[in-house]
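Attaching the record inline, Q. Sequence:
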Amino acid sequence: MEDLQQIAEFKTSPELAEKLQQYSIRKEYKAGSLILNENAHIRSIPIVTKGTLKVIRTEEDGREILLYYIKAGESCIMSFLGGLHNETSKVKAEVEDDAEILFLPVEKVSLFIKEYPQWLDYIFRLYHKRFEELLEIVNAIAFRKVDERLLDLLQKKKDLTGNKTLNITHEQLANELGTARVVVSRLLKQLEEIGKVKLGRNKITLM
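Structure, as predicted:
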């Protein structure tokens, strides 16, 4: 219960944190694990207690784009909305760093909304944060160059992991940016030439 009580809204309601602990199923996942797939039925809501998830949208032609990260203490607002309205998932969630997750059954989500105002505050805070992050994605795609988006993505990954050396392929970066691998490889080479990064085999070090 200690990890849940670090969340701002739950500090004022130990009872809510206890209920979440009681009704949720705790699972651990390694990096790369798929937590939720597109078009899957949503039967539980994930609350990350350790590690990081990334939420991705895939188009019909197979292209992907990273929407946002879910860090410790956060949940997936799209899972909330889909679960409450009995809809299938519009996104997929994948483990970025080894994670520990609590899965709260969907039927308990509505019950907690009625019983605990802090739970509703938690949902609204997440909704507001995700809305701002999605606006940033739209602005970046519309107004920023791919090299700027690439460097920003690398910096975010560095901040999330606390490590300036990232174990990631050019293909993975291309998928998250919604662009081609050859574009990412060319831009990374340019960034290396100006001393922004150092490239290795499936590794990128920010300088």
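The chain has a mean pLDDT of 88. The first helix runs from residue 8 to 11.

More tomorrow.
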